[in-house]
Input
Amino acid sequence: MVGSLRIGRRGQTSLEALLALAALLCALAVLAHSAKGQTDAFASAVGEADARTSLAHEAFYIDLAASDMPNAALQRNLSGVPSSDGRWLASRQSGAVREPLFHKISADADGGYHVQDE
Amino acid sequence: MCRMNEFDRRRPAASSGVSSPFGRNIANFAPLQAAHFLLQAKRGPFFGAPKKWAEYRSVGNDARTAAFWSIDAAFALVLSVAMFAMLSSILYAAGMSASRGADETSGVLLSARFSSYALERMERGGDVDLQAVLAGTGKRYASLRTAGVEGEISFAFAGEGGGNAYCTARLYAREGRMVRMEACIG
Output
């Protein structure tokens, strides 16, 4: 009698343990999914910020050089891509990030830029 | 028939669990115990004297089940959720901070480039078409202000103010006098 009760209690405890484990796993899955989303959003925001900062400096160097040296060829390996009209510089890493230019440029075949005379 | 061993003599099986009309006991499953406790608090005890909450948690709990539903486990859960919320808010704040920093860098450098462009145009003797600047940069406001020692010389603006505008002020020589030019764009 007592032994059967003890077996019953043990079975009940196992069921509780299973339920608790299932609840814990569900909670962990929800937390992991949420954490992954937040980490992705953070990585995207930081990557975009990095691309914007880099592109802003690059646009600054281009406009500075263009005002001092019209028709200059900038032969550096730059990270931006000029638009078809030559008035915008877009990031290679993040296409949504772009910076306006006050001078018109075009891409050279060797990866640099050429400032166009206006 | 089973023979009682030493363990059962010290700890009688009759005291394990809480009496309930639904069965032998509500065992140690905390949600069921909480439901039973609330029901009897609302409708009166099912059998005998009403039980206090402490009795549910103290009667019939062995060390194994107590570990599942202890106050320590509850604290651990609360702490986990709080730490997760803190981590989330820190990540969000860091992302926003990086984004604001990049926007500020971009705005400051754009206003510096705008001031250089305006100076370049003035040195060539031309005017600065602020509407064209707005159309070309996709911004909403641009202004140029020049001032000498005697006061403001000229001020021109285009677009609508109210948002964030970044300004760059610089000195240049104009007809033999030092003039301060402030270029704003945003």
Notes: Chain B touches chain A at residues 1-2, 4, 8, 13, 16, 27-29, 64-65, 68, 84, 87-88, 91-92, 94-96, 98-99, 101-103, 105-106, 109-110, 112-114, 116-117, 120, 133, 136-139 (CB under 8 Å). Chain B has six helices and four strands.
